[in-house]
Amino acid sequence: MVSLNLKSIQEYISSLYGLKVKITYFGDLEKRKEHLKPKLKLKGFGYGKPYLLEFKIRNRRYEAILETMRKDSFGHDYPSDRAQNLILAYQTYNKLPKHAKALDVGVFTKKGKLKSLGDFDEFFILVEKVEGKEYHYDLEEIASKDFLQPLDILRCETLSNYLAKIHSKRKDLPELYIRRFRELVGHGECVMGLIDNYPSNLDFVNEGELKLIEKKCVDWRWKLKNKTYRLCQVHGDFHPWNILFLKDTKFRVLDRSRGEWGEAADDVSSLTINYLFFAIQTKGKLEGPFKKLFETFMEKYLEKTGDEEIFEVIQPFYAWRSLVLASPIWYPTLTSETRRKIINFALNVLDVEKFEFKHVNQYFG
Q1: The predicted structure's pLDDT at residue 337
Q2: d(C-alpha 35, C-alpha 92), whole Å
């Protein structure tokens, strides 16, 4: 709910038209139809409800409708969702014959001001510069030397403990858990989006197998969408390129994705599949240093959370991350043999009721 005042509205409309305006009415559209006397109603502007705005410029009368979108569970949970829809409306309304004209798109500030975004081209975000070295450099060094330093184990444990801590924060919003699984399957950045961007006629996977992965993920969505009690705080893209270590075990993270709340298995799979990924490239299977890191991470996470159920929900998340790693677009230099093992992993984990983290090599065949 936004509290507006006459001055804010007047300043906004004046800036929009480049002329001084006089506000004659602002309030409920339906009530204005019932009560035609000019009346200012400024308190408690509601989301998702149209409000009538009447104003004069040089004695000429104008009318406009001011509205926002209501928060709901149909893909409008976050302010960014609602912004996306309103920006699209502004871009498209005026292109359709006979459609009501879009005059502007803007935002309400925390102080009740109205800011125009009507001349937007692209949006941007400004974030602080974080010092540190991306974690994938650690993994590349481990792969080249084929042994672990004590610090490698400590950093692995630190990352596991970090996820256990952020995942301990829970939320009772079932619609967000259901949304997370819906997006896992259907979002352009997730399973279907990845598959749609695979080139044709690949030598390591065929269309039928990609279709099978997609179908199995849909089945998993229906199997898991009601485990809404598992909703927790997540990062959403917790992989080695988004983790920066400064010194020893001090680190920062980048590029949180797809919302604040989700399934813990999302983050766990995002990081741990990279231990498998580097192991496959160096050994052809999970053994040696990366086996140690993979099992250390899982054991520490279980020790902190006791979440054995995670191995009954992690399968479709591993499948999605496998599609990322096997993609010729994202990883163009991999061998077909490595890609095939990743695809095998995706297909096989989707077939098991419980993921056995100490017997991972059975999934590569």
Answers
A1: 97
A2: 33
Q: How far apart are CA 35 and CA 193, in angstroms?
A: 51
Q: pLDDT below 70 — which residues of the chain?
A: 1-3, 30-48
Torsional class of 337: left (φ above 0), alpha (ψ -120 to 50), beta (otherwise): alpha
* Residues present in the chain in total: 365
| Residues 92 and 160 both lie in one domain | no
Q: Which amino acid is at 104?
A: D
2: β partners:
45
Q: What is the DSSP letter of 294?
A: H
Eight-state DSSP code of residue 35: -
Co-location of 28 and 97 in the same domain: yes
* Bridge pairing between strands 114-116 and 243-245: unpaired
With DSSP H G I counted as helix, E B as strand and the rest as coil, what are the percentages for the chain, rounded to 5? Answer: 50, 10, 40
Identify the domain containing residue 207 by its residue range: 133-363
Phi first, then psi, for residue 7 (nearest 5°) are -60, -40
Classify 107 as helix, strand or coil: strand
The pair of three-digit structure tokens given for residue 190, joined into one six-digit string: 């997730």
Query: What is the DSSP track for 235-277?
Result: -S--STTSEEE-STT-EEE----S-SEE-HHHHHHHHHHHHHH
Supply the pTM of this predicted model: 0.88
Beta strands (DSSP E) in the chain are: 22-28, 51-57, 60-66, 106-108, 114-116, 133-134, 232-233, 243-245, 251-253, 261-262
Q: In angstroms, rounded to a whole number, what is the distance separating the alpha carbons of residues 299 and 303?
A: 6
- Return the closest-CA partner of residue 176 out of 123, 136, 229: 229
Tokens of 112: 């009740």
CA 19 to each of CA 16, 24, 57, 61: distance values in angstroms, whole numbers, following the listed order = 8, 16, 7, 14
Q: Which residues pair with 25 in a beta bridge?
A: 54
Q: What is the DSSP letter of 40?
A: B
Eight-state DSSP code of residue 96:
S
Say yes or no: 183 and 315 in one domain.
yes
* Same domain, yes or no: 161 and 95: no
- Dist. CA 115–CA 136, nearest whole Å: 41
For the segment 314-363, what is each residue's pLDDT rounded down to a tens digit? 999 999 999 999 999 999 999 999 999 999 999 999 999 999 999 999 99
Query: Is the CB of residue 167 less than 8 Å from the CB of residue 305?
Result: yes
Q: Are residues 245 and 163 in the same domain?
A: yes
